[in-house]
Amino acid sequence: MKLAIDSSVFISHLGQNDEFSSDSKLFFTTIFEQKEKIIIPTLIIAETLTILRQQNHPSLKPIYKTFNDFNIIDLDSKFLEKFVNLLLKQHTNMKTSDLAIAATAKFNESTLITWDRKILTSAKSICPILTPKQYIEQTKSN
Amino acid sequence: MIRTQIYLPEEVHSNLQKLANRKGTTLSKLVREGAKTVLEKNYGKMTPQLKALKFLANYPDDLRVKLSESAVKLVRKQRD
Fold first, then answer.
1. Using CA atoms, how far apart are residues A42 and B35, in angstroms rounded to an integer?
2. CB atoms B66 and A55 under 8 Å
3. Are A94 and A102 in contact (CB under 8 A)?
4. CB-side exposure of B49: number of CA atoms within 13 Å?
5. Within the 101-130 window of chain A, which residues sit less than 8 Å (CB to CB) from chain B?
6. H or E segment at B29?
7. Where are the domains of chain B?
8. Which residues of B touch A19 (CB under 8 A)?
9. Is B46 on the interface with A (CB under 8 A)?
10. pTM of the model
11. How far is A114 from chain B (nearest CA, A)?
12. Contacts of A26 (CB under 8 A, 6+ apart)
């Protein structure tokens, strides 16, 4: 399975007091064991690093270097062309950033992994989508 | 495979070509072999992505930050 990981999962994992932090940690252990292929849109990297900076995270540079080792998907003119086609085909009330992330997952045949309740509902019609917990349960049952 | 263009010093190019002829292989194959060796030297048997996943899977607790209300809200409900 190819996975597109949302910023909510990274932030929850790199933080310590979120209700999902322990599940996020287990999620990263599981995808490491499963050797899953990961894609990360540039927007997610920018968003995650901005929020971590606002939380005074002590090690932004190693995290940024780590992000660079994944398959980074640029929001470039090729993406925009596909994005416009999607907009023309499908009506949606999603926020631009949510739609861009869901569209990136769709264009790269990936499952979007997020804790974001709103996107979990709204992106269902765009791409396959799971919470980290659902992903772990699905992996265990296979 | 991805096609890419690289510059090699003349002597390296000439020696690689001679080696390729002697081994009955191609210069491209030798360059690919060399690139693989460099990657293995730097990453071991793991791909960069797997190494990144290992880093995240073993992320130390003492480097995790206390999240503010707004960050927690973002995780649970929706992004900005």
1. 27
2. yes
3. yes
4. 15
5. 115-119
6. helix B27-43
7. 10-79
8. 76
9. no
10. 0.81
11. 8
12. A132, A136
A57: phi then psi, degrees, rounded to nearest 5: -65, 135
Q: Which residues pair with A70 in a beta bridge?
A: none
Find the CATH number of the domain harbouring A136: 3.40.50.1010
How many residues are listed for chain A in this entry? Answer: 142
**Among the listed residues A7, A10, A15, the one whose alpha carbon sits nearest the alpha carbon of residue A41:** A7
What are A60-77's pLDDT values in tens digits?
999 999 999 999 999 999
Domain region containing A126: 2-141
Contacts (Cβ under 8 Å, ≥6 apart) of A99: A83, A92, A123, A126
ipTM above 0.90, yes or no: no
Q: Which residue has the tokens 């765009």?
A: A126
Cβ-contact B78, A117 below 8 angstroms: yes
C-alpha distances in Å from residue A2, one per residue of A48, A107, B55: 20, 12, 19
